[in-house]
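Our collaborator T.R. sent over the components below with a one-line note: 'Predict the complex.' Nothing else. No constraints on interfaces, no templates requested, no preferences about which chain binds where. So this is a plain run: every listed entity goes in together, and whatever single assembly comes back becomes the starting point for the next discussion.
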Amino acid sequence: MTTNFFDVKDSRNLTMLVDFYELTMGNGYFFNDVANKTAYFDMFFRRVPDGGGYCIMSGVQQLIDYMSNLKFSKEDIDYLRSKNIFNENFLNYLENFKFCCDVWAVPEGYPVFPNEPLVTVKGPVVQAQFLETMILLTINHQTLIATKANRICRAANGRPVMEFGSRRAQGYDGAVYGARAAVIGGCSSTACTIAEEMFDIPVSGTMAHSWVQLFPSEYEAFKAWAETYPDNCTLLVDTYNVQKSGLPNAIKVFDEILKPRGLRPKGIRIDSGDITYLTNKCRKALDAAGYEDVKIIISNSLDEHIILDVLNQGAKIDGFGVGERLITARSEPVFGGVYKLAAIEENEEIIPKIKISENEEKITNPGFKKIYRIFDKASGKALADLLTLNDEVIDESKPLVIFDPIYTWKKKKLTNYFVKDLRIKIFDKGNVVYKSPKVTELRDLAKVETEKLWPEVLRFENPHNYYVDLSPNLWTLKQNLLQKLSDDYEGNN
Amino acid sequence: MTTNFFDVKDSRNLTMLVDFYELTMGNGYFFNDVANKTAYFDMFFRRVPDGGGYCIMSGVQQLIDYMSNLKFSKEDIDYLRSKNIFNENFLNYLENFKFCCDVWAVPEGYPVFPNEPLVTVKGPVVQAQFLETMILLTINHQTLIATKANRICRAANGRPVMEFGSRRAQGYDGAVYGARAAVIGGCSSTACTIAEEMFDIPVSGTMAHSWVQLFPSEYEAFKAWAETYPDNCTLLVDTYNVQKSGLPNAIKVFDEILKPRGLRPKGIRIDSGDITYLTNKCRKALDAAGYEDVKIIISNSLDEHIILDVLNQGAKIDGFGVGERLITARSEPVFGGVYKLAAIEENEEIIPKIKISENEEKITNPGFKKIYRIFDKASGKALADLLTLNDEVIDESKPLVIFDPIYTWKKKKLTNYFVKDLRIKIFDKGNVVYKSPKVTELRDLAKVETEKLWPEVLRFENPHNYYVDLSPNLWTLKQNLLQKLSDDYEGNN
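Returned assembly:
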């Protein structure tokens, strides 16, 4: 498939998928004559789910689709008017809404880290504020699933992982865009048919237990399947009893239906029982029957931990079907991305803003910023990310000293490095200036970029904390703002 | 709002949101000339999430929308043809697809229990099988969220619970249909604007921290808000410091802007910090300033446990905004509903089918069944549910003996009872014959029906196991099938 059916399949107008307070604030900005003040908002997250070392950025193309199609229908305006709290000049603005923000984002597939501005919006505060709900919803969801899929695929250690979770997803988009994110994270295919139509990602699937039950016997069910799909025959062998029934029936059907035609069966699937024990028994029996090339596929409430465990026990597995624990990121199903005001403009000057908190790690990084990823020239490995103010340029010919933003005496002097500006502009004054690559290309990109991280960062448990440091300028700006706010309170009280 | 914007807002064709194996099986049914064999499938779940005592059925209206709109476009057919595995007679069937199944379901809002057939489909196996993915996806998602919302709302003990989770939902439908399910479960409102347009459920919202940050000072931000919304003024008081700044500024603005106009403020919201401590301080200060009627709203990673805990500690709270832990059912984000073949017809006779498993609790209940809920006439309380074969009628004038399906000596003789056939028919030969009530009516229904359960079943922890028993006919049928299957294996080996 090369056609992209996106426009056919998802023609919804999601403009009104917005927290109501974005609208009451928008109305308030108008009422107080600040609607067109230029604001900078950052989207970022504070910790990696599952105690992992990094996340995989995902969802940018859907953000672009959303921002490109912002439009309030007449019905939307009528509905808002019926609330009797919105002023007519605000409603007129919405009715004639013309998106005009600048937007930057880390491209999909890149490993990303806590406190990095993954998306930055610059524009009239009434617009930049409005985007909050959908930026968070889109990036939080897809980055969560891509990150979980990446863990599961790394555990599978090169074996294909098929995404099988639609039926347990949290809603239709959970299934469809979840499948997309799962493939970016590393899955080889999805069972979700519409996802292939929409995103041109490979679809796969075998049979259900109900197929086996529908026929008078398992043998007849297998025979019917082999006759239907002689070129691509994978049999589900655990409907009744793998060893006593499923496996012998499968081998019998392979022998009787496929062998005489010179065809090789593709595989067997096991969806229940003791994986290590059964796969070893099956492997032995298949090999003895001359089916050394027939794959054994496993699917039963799998996640990265179970996969690591059964492989470690010596289970004989060629591929995994992973459902509910991937598509819902069951072990940690919330990605806590936030969207915070970083600066406003007054008289064309950028005034940085900070959000303080009694919880120190919730204090934001102020100002209009940039992310540089610093690579070691010799190994090509990523050494650290450095947040700077937007106009800062790094001179790669000179040594670079980075330091921990809390324990500032912890310094590191970098030489023989090069830097990459991690973000790309996706909207310029409201016009799209970027298109994400194909999903399968993003999967390849994610693999390449992840391999640039040190093994210590890739660990499943207790990974090394990748450095995300602040430039001296940004660090000083932040400290000054914190000092000033602290002084204000002491003065006030 | 009385208009339902559903058709405007969700005009997607979700027909192709289907696991690919439903299609390969469908093609196989045609190839093997069994596509029009009549099959009965049941959707049911095996355990209540979070160790609770019951679930709240939700999602039936979306099932109806889906089944009413099944249609394969020319592009879908072209796409399927391009896979080179589907026969033309199957593709022709899909191209001219005409839904013709009978479907029964428990209406939304009812408490439901493990192993009950919540949805039953009767129809040609090619159609009944096809529905699997979307029946599970729809009911699993909404029942999960309605059930979680019901727990959270019961913990709030009469105080309103506002659904605030869109930004952390798993995809757009996770937000939109999640908001719908949350209201069925008991939430008073949602922040998700489009959900009000689509389902006519109340929307609510206040302000974000960014509103406060945008203005030169918190006082000016509050003043601007009060000027904009003098009739409906709720202020977010934790942007800088609740006690030193937010609370005194709020009271000052209430005094200066609202009091002179004879208007009462609505409330304050606290989104961080020590809830019990801060709400007590705020309540005291508000009362002292003459604002005894001003509500204190709390929102910060809440769930039923934290709500029970802070209320138990004496926190002064009038309402809750609940986000990520509700909209993702974070503590247990997967609802494990399954869809299993229960019977087929041969020569117009129903042949019951059973799915066995080494895990005894995974063995299905065979046959075409009915759910009776048995109520005590004196108290009106629900005593038990009884699964029977579809043609069984209970004579309420006679005592009814029910028994545990495992420990069959545990019996109970019921007198002075009445029964209710719990399911309704939603499709008759492919035509819709039911429409769900309004979402707010479903919320009322859920409240009424939940109150018919004994307090022991309503417990948050270790609830009493509500009885879901089998009629003697159904029990005997199941035992006979199990005996036969067991004998088959011993004979085979």
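Summary for T.R.: The domain at 154-327 of chain A is CATH 3.20.20.70 (TIM Barrel).
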